[in-house]
């Protein structure tokens, strides 16, 4: 995986975790009939819910395969008489897409990559939903500003600008706004452990390794005896290279552009091949190699999957976090009161690259398969999915359990809502029973994101930014951090100190790879990611250097120059569109 949305969707279970709280989706059972409570455009077709309907959901975002059960499964069953059967390439393997598309039927609801949508339109495997979307109550609100511009980018296969796909995690802010209080990827450490070794200033990655070593020596185990590891890695997110390497490249200004696998791009528009000797990819590989030589890398790294990592994060067994939402596995308001939690710890020589809010989406799309069963019922579900009710369930659970209304008409997390994810809180039987975390939506993606305003409260659905949460988060942890760094939050700190470049988020079509480029890309990607792992765990610096040199030579023989040329054209398009977005501010 190479893009922020891919990693985010792999763990939407904590997408909505704030610095000190986590209140991921916990749904209840609405008694109202869908589409009947407010005025507005909607599908006036009478829909018969009397027959049970099982929908096959092909989801590139899902970490789970099988029937959706738990509270979310009960919600959909009670509200729509729908059961979701989820197919997950991350579980079953990439061959699943090839097999099902070759058979002519991927499923009823598809959560796929932009490039896959572009492949599926001309062969007739996705449904034209232009008229259906126009006739909805909620989705129709986002057509002109979001869905039309996105689908219009697929002009080579969609010259009429029809709507085939609904982009994922769309923010209704602006194309150049960044709303979050912490960049997606930046160094994050447990505050109490960091202070426990003297909270030394971090000037560079060498300083980071030194402080991790001190923390490892001082805090080898959790209070209940579980081993603590400074750095943990995992393979199941890897695409064209190592995801854990690519995201740390962001700390030094280089990102992996959407749709590419061989290059990195900075805010100035400079393009660097991954295998360049001065590439940030190599620099981060060297960082991890050095860390392993120092005994700082989790020995489980090569064999564990993301679910195991998530378990360790929940137990505070990992010292270095690098993704903003990883904090939510452990942080809570209660712990924050005691100065306990994972926070940003800036490294002085970093200059982070950060994309703005995903105004046009973030690289995947929801689509309906051309052979879908009962498309009217699917559209009814998707329209509810972006409704205030649907978004509240997905992002904040249900009223009275996870959150409650305040006297001023806004919302406030309940005590249960603050820790339901971490504690896998039992859900009342009336809402489906089981554990809160266990019953979350296994679709693991959204159309509209939580950076959309709730019309009832006037605040984002993201509860991190509720005024009540901001007030509750004035804990020892936050105030200590704020006084130390003289900033309200990490984003403000990085902006004040000229340590971040916020670039417009670009989400568009880049054209479909030819079969030749696709085959070369696949072989090169496998080679690069496999060699990257070997380099990190190399016996010594000599072996590290030898593996790197061999990779540089071998990938050329696999067609490297052709794939780089293709990726460079995509990057140039991104650079141009970013300039246009900034010029139109």
Report on this model:
This protein has 585 residues and is of the alpha+beta class. It has two domains: 4-27 and 44-176 and 360-467, D-Maltodextrin-Binding Protein, domain 2 (3-Layer(aba) Sandwich), CATH 3.40.190.10; 181-356 and 482-585, Periplasmic binding protein-like II (D-Maltodextrin-Binding Protein, domain 2, 3-Layer(aba) Sandwich). The chain is built from 22 helices and 15 strands. It has helices at 4-10, 70-80, 89-92, 95-102, 114-120, 130-134, 143-152, 191-196, 205-218, 243-249, 280-293, 306-314, 333-337, 375-385, 388-396, 415-423, 467-472, 476-485, 490-496, 515-536, 541-557, 560-583, and strands spanning 53-59, 66-67, 82-87, 109-113, 166-167, 185-190, 263-265, 271-273, 321-323, 342-344, 352-355, 364-368, 403-405, 411-413, 500-503. A hairpin with a 5-residue loop joins strand 13 (403-405) and strand 14. Helix 10 (243-249) crosses helix 11 (280-293) and helix 20 runs antiparallel to helix 21. The protein is globular, with a radius of gyration of 23 Å. The two termini are 31 Å apart. The relative contact order is 0.19.
